[in-house]
Design brief:
The protein has 32 helices and 41 strands. A hairpin with a 4-residue loop joins β34 and β35. The N and C termini lie far apart (111 Å). The strands form ten sheets. Strands 4, 5, 6, 14, 15, 16 and 17 form a seven-stranded antiparallel sheet that branches. α28 crosses α32. By secondary structure, the chain is of the alpha+beta class. The radius of gyration is 36 Å and the shape is globular. Helices cover 32% and strands 23% of the residues.
Length: 1084
C-alpha cells in the first residue's frame, strides 16, 4: 500500500510539471494574438464616414437636387411600365423600319430583272466601267488606267467620313477573274441601270448605307461607289458569292453529306486540293444547314467519329471543329465508293425522319480522283425516281479517264459535275453547286427576303472599331421564258442595316436603369444584346472567331432550361422572370437582381425581340410637366449635354440635319425652326422637366468654385449629375488640364456615360445603394501598370421614399485618390482617451488597416501598390474567414464568350498553299511532276513537292474561344461589424471589420504579427471549364431548339437537269512543259 502511495505521489508531481509547462506554452500562443478593440475601429469608421460623406454631399449638391425633386413631387404622375405593351410597340417600330429596308431591296430586284430582260448578250461588247480597284489610278505617263477613269470621291459623314460617290456605284471583280470577261462586261453593262434606283432609294430613306448587287458571274456592284484597296499581296480575295447573304438568298436550307476519297491514289497534292475543296464547301454552308464529312477507302472514316450516323448544324464552331480534323486525313488503301454512298443515303434518310435537319434540300458531295462504276443500282435503290438527293461530283486532278462516270452520276441525280486540277480552281468550281440548288426557287419566282445574323463591317469602323450589321437580301432571277426551266440565277441584291439603327427605335428611358432590349435570330443567336462582346484584346479590337453565333443562352445563362430562349425562337409572346447576376465594371463587380423579361416576334423577319426590366424602381416611370419656355431656358446652360446615342430626334432622315447634335435638334424642333424633324415628344417633355429641376445646381456648383477657401487643396476635381432622360451636367473645380482622369465622362470612357445599351456605371451602382448613401469606387484600369489615382462617389436621387419610386437622377463627384486616402489616415489616428494618447493606431506596425468596398476591392492600404487589388489576394486568411462567417458571399459567374490562351500546333504546309501565288506554283510543280513520271522510274513527286507538304510543326500560343468560371464577391448588407480570430500554424490572427456609415465601404483592421502563410490567397482569376471527350461529344450532338426558315424550294418538276457540268481538260505539249521543269530542277 505505501508503495502504491509513493507511485501516486510521483505521478502527481510529474503531472503538475507537465500541466505547468503546457499552460506556459498556451499563454505564449494566446499571447501572440493581437487584441484589436472594436470600439476604437468603430470610432475611426464613424469619423471617416462622416467626413467623406460631408465632402461628397457638399460638392455633388445631392441634398439640393433631392430637395428640388421633392418640390415637384405632387405635380408628377408615377406609372408602372407595362412590359408586354412596351415590347409589342417596339417590335412594331422595328417591323416598320425593317420593312422600309426590304422595300428598297425589292425595288432593286425589279430594276435588275427588267434590265436583264431587255439586254441581249454580246460576246464582243466593249464597255468601260468603273472598276473599284482601278478608279483614279494612273500610269507612269499620268494617264488613267483602263477601267480606272476619274471617279469623284468625297468624304461623307453618313459613311463615317469615308470618301464615297453618292451619285454612282462602282464594280469590284475578284482577283482570280478577268476584268474583261464577256460575261462580266455584259453583266456590268445591264446592271448599270441600278444606279438610278440606288440613288432613289437613298433619297427615300437617307438612313440606308451600302446597297449592292452580287452577280452570279462573280462581280460586285456597290453603292455608293468607293475605292477598294488590295491586301499586301496585291490580292482582293472578296467574292460576293461566298458571303452568307448571297448564299442564304440564292438557296434553300440543305442537309449535306461530304464524301472524301482517301485511297492511295489521292496522295500528295490531290489530297491537299480535296481538303481545300471540303473547306470551301463548308464556307458555303450557313446556320440553317446541316452536314457531316466521311472519308473513305476500303473502310469508312467519319472525320469526327463522335458524330457517326448523324448530321450537325453548320454553325461556325462546328465547321471549325471539322476543319481541324481534316488535317488528320491521310491517303492509303483502295477506294470503295459503294460503301460510302450506301452510308450517305442511309444517314440522310434517317436524319430526315428525325425532323431535326433542314427538311428541305439534300445533297451528297463526292470528292475523288475517279470512280470505276456509275453505281446506278445504289441510286435506283435510294434515290430514283424522285431524285430527292442531289449528287455533286468533284474530280480531283487533271486526268479525265473517270470523268464520264462521275458526270453520269451527277446528271442522273440532278446535280453537277466539275473538275478541279489546281488549288486556284477550287472556289470557282465549288460555287457551281449553289446555282444548281437555286433552280427551284428561280423557277418558282419566289423572291424570299432573307436576313443574316449580326456581323462586323470593318469598312465602316467607328470610334469603337466596329459596326455590327445585319443584311437584308433577295435573289434576282432571269424572267426570259426560253430559260425558265433552266432556273437562271442572275445574282442577289442587298442592303446593310446597322444594329445601332435598331437601338435607335428603343426608348432607353422607358427601360429603366438596368433594363435593356435584345433581339435574336431563328437559331437563337444574338442580333443585339448589351452583353454581346464581339471583340477581344482591348486596344487591338480583334474579332472573336465565333462572335456572330453567340447563343442567347450564353449571356442569359441563369436560364438553365432555356425557357426564355426557346419561347423567343418559337416566336411566342409572353413573360418570363428570373434572378440574374449582371456583371459591371469590366466584369469585376456583380449586381444581383430579379428581371422580368417580355418578348414577341418581329413580323416580316426571322427575329424575335425581348425587353428586360429589373424589379423595383426599374419598373416605374414618372411624368413631370413644365412649360416649353421654362425648359428651353434651362437647356441653354453650357454645362448641359444629352446622351449622343439616344434618339430624341431622328437626325438621319434629312442630310441637312446630320450635323446636328441631339441638343441642337431639340431646340430647333421646339422653336419651330425645323418642322421636318421627327422627335419623341414624350421624351423631350421629360428632358425639359429634368432641365428645369436640375438647373439650380449649376449656380450652387459655381458658388463653391468661386469660394477660394473651399477645396483649397483641389482634392475634389469634378461634380456631375445624370437624369433618367439622359441629361447630364458637369462642373469642373479645377482646370481641364489639371484633371487627374482626363477620359472621365468623355466618349472614350464608354462605361461612365449614357449610351444606347446602358446608363453610366456610377448611376447603376448608386441606384442599388441604400437611398441617401454614397457608393465609392476606384475605376479599374485595363493596363495593370497604370494604377487608377481617382475615387468616384455617387448617390441616387429618388422621388419617393419607397421601393416603387423611380430613381430620377444620380449625382456624384470625382476626387483625387491621395486626397481621399489622406482623409482616411487622419480619421484612423483619432481616439477617445482624455489624455489624447491612443492605445492603438493605424500607424502601429502591429496592425494593418485597409479600406475596402462592398465587392472586396482595396481603396486604401498602407502599401499603395495594393490599391485596386482584391482584398483576398492580399489577406487570403481574413477574406476566407469573412466568407465563412457570412460577412461576404461568393457568387459564381460564367463567361461563355471568353478567350483562353492555348498551345497549338501550327503548320506551314496547307495554309501556305491557300495563297494564290503559292497555289499556282504548287499546281505547276504538280503538273510538271506528273509529266516527268513518264520519263523516270522513281517517285520524283514526293521529292518535288515535299517542301510544300511536309508540316513544319511547332507550338504556337494562340487565343481560342473557351468557357470560363470565375467568382465575384458581395458584402452582406445586414452585417455592419464583425470581429474574428483565425487559427494559423502557431498563432491566432485577429481582425475587425466595420462598415463605414452611409457608404458601401468597410474598414478592416488586421493583426500584422501573426502570419497565415498556410492559407492561400483568394483570387478572382477565371478558370477554364474543360470538357472531357465524352462531354465534348455530347455537346456536339446536342442541338438546341431552332426554327426553320418558312420557305423551302428543294425541287421543281419543270427543272431542267441536263445542264450538269463538263470536263475542262488540260493539254500542253510535253516539250513546252518539260523545259521549264528541267531548268527549275537544275537551279535548285
Amino acid at each position: 500500500m505505501p508503495e502504491n502511495l509513493n507511485l501516486l505521489r510521483a505521478f502527481g508531481g510529474f503531472f503538475f510539471i507537465f500541466w505547468t509547462a503546457f499552460n506556459t506554452a498556451l499563454v505564449d500562443v494566446v499571447g501572440s494574438e493581437q487584441q484589436i478593440p472594436l470600439s476604437v475601429v468603430k470610432l475611426w469608421a464613424s469619423a471617416f464616414g462622416g467626413e467623406i460623406k460631408s465632402i461628397a454631399a457638399k460638392y455633388s449638391g445631392s441634398q439640393l437636387l433631392q430637395k428640388k425633386y421633392k418640390e415637384y413631387e405632387k405635380d408628377v404622375a408615377i406609372e408602372e411600365i407595362d412590359g408586354l405593351q412596351l415590347v409589342k410597340k417596339l417590335a412594331k417600330n422595328m417591323e416598320e423600319m425593317f420593312h422600309k429596308k426590304s422595300e428598297a431591296v425589292r425595288r432593286l430586284v425589279e430594276a435588275a430583272e427588267d434590265a436583264y430582260l431587255k439586254h441581249e448578250f454580246d460576246a464582243d461588247l466593249q464597255y468601260e466601267y468603273f472598276n473599284a480597284v482601278l478608279i483614279n489610278e494612273r500610269d507612269e505617263e499620268g494617264n488613267y488606267l483602263e477601267l480606272g477613269k476619274e471617279f469623284i470621291l468625297v468624304p461623307n459623314d453618313h459613311f463615317n467620313n469615308l470618301p464615297v460617290n453618292i451619285s454612282l456605284s462602282d464594280v469590284q471583280v475578284p482577283t482570280n477573274m478577268y476584268n474583261k470577261d464577256p460575261a462580266i462586261v455584259n453583266g456590268v453593262y445591264w446592271s448599270e441601270s441600278l444606279n438610278k434606283v440606288f440613288v432613289d432609294n437613298f433619297d427615300r430613306d437617307p438612313s440606308l448605307i451600302w446597297q449592292y448587287f452580287g452577280s452570279a458571274k462573280g462581280f460586285f456592284r456597290q453603292y455608293p461607289g468607293i475605292k477598294w484597296e488590295p491586301d499586301e499581296n496585291g490580292v482582293i480575295a472578296f467574292d460576293c458569292r461566298n458571303r452568307k447573304w448571297y448564299i442564304q438568298a440564292a438557296t434553300s436550307p440543305k442537309d449535306v453529306v461530304i464524301l472524301v476519297d482517301v485511297s492511295g491514289s489521292m496522295k500528295g497534292l490531290r489530297l491537299t486540293i480535296a481538303k481545300q475543296t471540303v473547306s470551301s464547301i463548308l464556307d458555303t454552308l450557313g446556320d440553317d444547314d446541316f452536314f457531316n464529312i466521311i472519308a473513305y477507302n476500303e473502310e469508312l472514316h467519319y472525320v469526327e467519329p463522335c458524330l457517326n450516323g448523324t448530321l450537325v448544324q453548320a454553325d461556325r464552331a462546328n465547321k471549325e471543329h471539322f476543319r481541324e480534323h481534316l488535317d488528320k486525313l491521310f491517303a492509303k488503301g483502295i477506294g470503295m465508293l459503294d460503301i460510302a454512298l450506301n452510308e450517305a443515303f442511309n444517314m440522310l434518310n434517317e436524319f430526315n425522319h428525325t425532323g431535326q435537319g433542314s427538311i428541305c434540300s439534300q445533297a451528297i458531295m463526292l470528292i475523288t480522283d475517279g470512280a470505276v462504276d456509275t453505281y446506278d443500282t445504289i441510286f435506283a435503290k435510294y434515290n430514283w425516281p424522285d431524285r430527292k438527293v442531289r449528287i455533286f461530283t468533284y474530280l480531283i486532278g487533271r486526268e479525265a479517264a473517270f470523268a464520264d462516270n462521275l458526270k453520269w452520276m451527277a446528271c442522273a441525280n440532278k446535280g453537277f459535275f466539275t473538275q478541279i486540277s489546281t488549288l486556284a480552281d477550287v472556289q470557282e468550281n465549288v460555287m457551281e453547286y449553289l446555282h444548281v440548288l437555286s433552280r427551284p426557287k428561280v423557277i418558282d419566282q419566289e423572291h424570299d427576303v432573307v436576313w443574316t445574323e449580326a456581323y462586323i463591317d470593318s469598312t465602316l469602323a467607328d470610334d469603337q472599331g466596329l459596326v455590327l450589321m445585319t443584311t437584308v437580301a433577295m435573289p434576282v432571277f432571269s424572267k426570259q421564258n426560253e430559260t425558265r426551266s433552266k432556273g437562271i440565277l442572275l445574282g442577289v441584291v442587298g442592303t446593310d442595316v446597322p444594329v445601332k439603327e435598331l437601338l435607335k427605335t428603343i426608348p432607353k428611358y422607358k427601360l429603366g436603369i438596368h433594363g435593356y432590349a435584345f433581339a435574336i435570330t431563328n437559331n437563337g443567336y444574338i442580333l443585339t444584346h448589351p452583353e454581346l462582346r464581339p471583340l477581344y484584346e482591348e486596344g487591338k479590337k480583334r474579332r472573336k472567331p465565333n462572335y456572330s453565333s453567340v447563343d442567347l443562352s450564353e449571356v442569359e445563362w441563369e436560364d438553365r432550361d432555356d425557357v426564355l430562349r426557346n419561347a423567343m425562337v418559337n416566336r411566342k409572346t409572353g413573360k418570363f422572370s428570373m434572378e440574374v447576376k449582371k456583371t459591371v465594371d469590366k466584369g469585376k463587380r456583380v449586381l444581383v437582381m430579379t428581371n422580368d423579361y417580355y418578348y414577341t416576334d418581329i413580323k416580316g423577319t426571322p427575329f424575335s425581340l425581348g425587353v428586360a426590366l429589373s424589379r423595383g424602381h426599374g419598373k416605374y416611370f414618372f411624368r413631370g410637366n413644365v412649360t416649353v419656355e421654362e425648359g428651353l431656358h434651362d437647356l441653354e446652360h453650357p454645362d448641359v449635354s444629352l446622351a449622343d446615342e439616344w434618339s430624341y430626334c431622328n437626325t438621319d432622315l434629312h442630310p441637312e440635319h446630320r450635323q446636328m447634335t441631339q441638343l441642337e435638334a431639340i431646340k430647333r424642333y421646339l422653336t419651330g425652326k425645323e418642322p421636318l424633324l421627327q422627335c419623341d415628344k414624350e421624351l423631350i417633355q421629360e428632358v425639359l422637366f429634368d432641365a428645369v429641376v436640375s438647373a439650380p445646381i449649376e449656380a450652387y456648383w459655381t458658388s463653391l468654385a468661386l469660394n477660394k477657401s473651399e477645396n483649397s487643396d483641389k482634392g475634389v476635381e469634378v461634380a456631375f449629375l445624370g437624369t433618367r432622360t439622359g441629361l447630364s451636367r458637369i462642373n469642373l473645380f479645377v482646370g481641364p488640364e489639371q484633371l487627374t482622369n482626363q477620359d472621365f465622362l468623355t466618349a472614350e470612357d464608354k462605361e461612365n456615360i449614357f449610351n444606347a445599351d446602358h446608363f453610366p456605371l456610377w448611376y447603376r451602382r448608386a441606384a442599388e445603394q441604400i437611398p441617401g448613401s454614397f457608393v465609392y469606387s476606384i475605376p479599374f484600369s485595363t493596363e495593370t501598370s497604370n494604377k487608377s489615382n481617382v475615387v468616384t462617389a455617387s448617390t441616387a436621387i429618388q422621388l419617393l421614399d419607397d421601393r416603387k419610386s423611380p430613381v430620377v437622377a444620380a449625382v456624384g463627384i470625382q476626387m483625387k485618390l491621395e486626397f481621399f486616402q489622406r482623409k482616411f489616415w487622419t480619421a484612423s489616428r483619432q481616439c477617445a482617451s482624455l489624455d489624447g494618447r491612443c492605445a492603438i493606431s493605424c500607424d502601429d506596425e502591429t496592425i494593418n488597416c485597409y479600406l475596402i468596398d462592398n465587392n472586396g476591392f482595396i481603396l486604401v492600404s498602407e502599401d499603395y501598390q495594393q490599391t485596386g487589388y482584391f482584398f483576398g489576394e492580399v489577406e487570403g486568411a481574413v477574406m476566407n474567414k469573412l466568407l465563412s462567417m457570412g460577412s461576404f458571399k461568393r457568387i459564381t459567374l460564367y463567361d461563355y464568350q471568353a478567350m483562353c490562351r492555348t498551345n497549338k500546333e501550327s503548320s506551314d504546309s496547307a495554309h501556305s498553299l491557300l495563297d494564290p501565288y503559292n497555289a499556282f506554283f504548287a499546281a505547276v510543280k504538280w503538273i510538271m511532276t506528273e509529266l516527268v513520271l513518264f520519263l523516270v522510274e522513281f517517285n520524283l513527286c514526293s521529292w518535288w513537292h515535299s517542301d510544300l507538304t511536309a508540316k513544319a510543326q511547332r507550338l504556337k500560343q494562340t487565343l481560342e474561344p473557351c468557357d470560363t468560371e470565375y467568382p465575384a464577391f458581395v458584402s452582406e448588407r445586414t452585417i455592419k461589424e464583425t470581429t474574428g480570430n483565425i487559427a494559423c500554424d502557431d498563432c491566432f490572427k485577429s481582425f475587425v471589420i466595420q462598415q463605414i456609415p452611409s457608404s458601401n465601404l468597410f474598414m478592416v483592421v488586421v493583426d500584422n504579427e501573426c502570419f497565415c502563410d498556410s492559407i492561400p490567397p483568394i483570387t478572382m482569376a477565371p478558370i477554364e471549364i474543360r470538357y472531357n471527350e465524352s462531354l465534348k461529344c455530347e455537346r456536339l450532338k446536342s442541338q438546341k431548339i431552332r426554327r426553320r426558315p418558312e420557305s423551302c424550294h428543294g425541287f421543281h418538276p419543270e427543272e431542267n437537269a441536263r445542264e450538269c457540268g463538263g470536263v475542262s481538260g488540260l493539254s500542253a505539249k510535253p516539250s513546252l512543259v518539260l523545259l521549264p521543269l528541267l531548268l527549275m530542277i537544275f537551279s535548285r
